[in-house]
TrEMBL record:
It is found in: Cytoplasm. The gene is accA. It comes from Gottfriedia endophytica. Pathway: Lipid metabolism; malonyl-CoA biosynthesis; malonyl-CoA from acetyl-CoA: step 1/1. Its EC number is 2.1.3.15. InterPro entries: Acetyl_CoA_COase_a_su, ClpP/crotonase-like_dom_sf, COA_CT_C. Residues 38-292 form the CoA carboxyltransferase C-terminal domain. It comes from the Bacteria. This is Acetyl-coenzyme A carboxylase carboxyl transferase subunit alpha. It catalyses: N(6)-carboxybiotinyl-L-lysyl-[protein] + acetyl-CoA = N(6)-biotinyl-L-lysyl-[protein] + malonyl-CoA. Keywords: ATP-binding, Cytoplasm, Fatty acid biosynthesis, Fatty acid metabolism, Lipid biosynthesis, Lipid metabolism, Nucleotide-binding, Transferase. GO terms for cellular component: acetyl-CoA carboxylase complex.
Length: 318
């Protein structure tokens, strides 16, 4: 079932009209080729206009698209010989975090990423991509292993936030995230983080400290959701669109602020429209980013990471 976003409505309606004409032509042997060609030209112009002028709230909706590719979608297309590892060796396994070892262009790497579901059953199993403490501890276990064997680390960020439930708090949710921030800052191997959907709050930061931060063009990265910000600022979560426009949470805004190192272009309309092509785009940027930092020594990697984050939020009065 196709999910229609509000700003895409004119495009999808025109596509439906074209499909109807093609079907009628096929069934009744009536030549509507001239009309179809005219509508297809109009469709191209409309797509250029709509997708070329997406607003902040439009990008938020694309980042949340239920069919948007997940970490596992990209792992299967970017890496070979992927071997998933489970468990934090303390409590259990968290399906909201996927982690393992694979090959990227012949180089052994460790991969960690948030994982949400594509349907209700899988979303329940993966807790809608909201990790418990054991998920972050599993991630850290794999990252420390990567440091031991000198493997670069690649993380995929895609979560509304860490799970805020009572059980998660009882098992040390805040400590687990804080521990990851502390440990990732000092890991002596290259770390590249890629925001592929929603990057929400500390749940995103828990695997988001790296030498390079890349964002897909229509992804978001924020300290709180627009709904949460609206509820705090104006006591009205329905003002989420207004909040999103003031929060600077999109890739272009964050690139301009120096938070993001590179923006990865998305296929027309969003990554969900062509996962294979989107994976190729990520592959190209990931390869170039790795090549930039692989030559750095262990000490230089830690120093570069420190410098990167210490510059965020600085204001120049020149």
């Amino acid at each position: 079932m196709m999910v229609m976003l509000e700003f895409e409505k004119p495009i999808l309606e025109l596509k439906s009209k074209i499909d109807e004409l093609k079907e009628y032509t096929h069934q009744h042997d009536v030549d509507f080729s001239e009309e179809i060609n005219r509508l297809e030209e109009r469709l191209k112009a409309l797509e250029t206009e709509v997708y070329g002028n997406m607003g902040v709230w439009d990008r938020v909706q694309v980042a949340r698209h239920p069919e948007r590719p997940t970490t596992l979608d990209y792992i299967s297309r970017l890496f070979t010989d992927f071997f998933e590892c489970h468990g934090d060796r303390l409590y259990g396994d968290d399906a909201a975090i996927v982690s393992g070892i694979g090959m990227f262009h012949g180089l052994p790497v460790t991969i960690v990423g948030h994982q949400r579901g594509k349907d209700t059953k899988e979303n329940i199993r993966r807790n809608f991509g909201m990790p418990h403490p054991e998920g972050y501890r599993k991630a850290l276990r794999l990252m420390k292993q990567a440091e031991k064997f000198n493997r670069p680390i690649i993380t995929f960020i895609d979560t509304k936030g860490a799970y805020p439930g009572k059980a998660a708090e009882e098992r040390g949710q805040s400590e687990a995230i804080a521990r990851n921030l502390f440990e990732m800052a000092g890991l002596r191997v290259p770390i590249i983080c890629i925001v592929i959907g929603e990057g929400g709050s500390g749940g995103a930061l828990g695997i988001g400290i790296g030498n390079k931060l890349l964002m897909l063009e229509n992804s978001t990265y924020s300290v709180i959701s627009p709904e949460g910000a609206a509820a705090l600022l104006w006591k009205d979560a329905s003002l989420a669109r207004k909040a999103a426009e003031t929060m600077k949470i999109t890739a272009p805004d964050l690139y301009e602020l120096g938070v993001v190192d590179q923006i990865i272009p998305e296929v027309k309309g969003g990554a969900q429209n062509d996962v294979g092509q989107q994976a190729e785009n990520i592959d190209r940027y990931l390869y170039e980013s790795l090549k930039e930092i692989l030559h750095l020594s262990q000490e230089e990697l830690v120093e570069q990471r420190y410098e990167k984050f210490s510059k965020i939020g600085q204001i120049s009065y020149e």
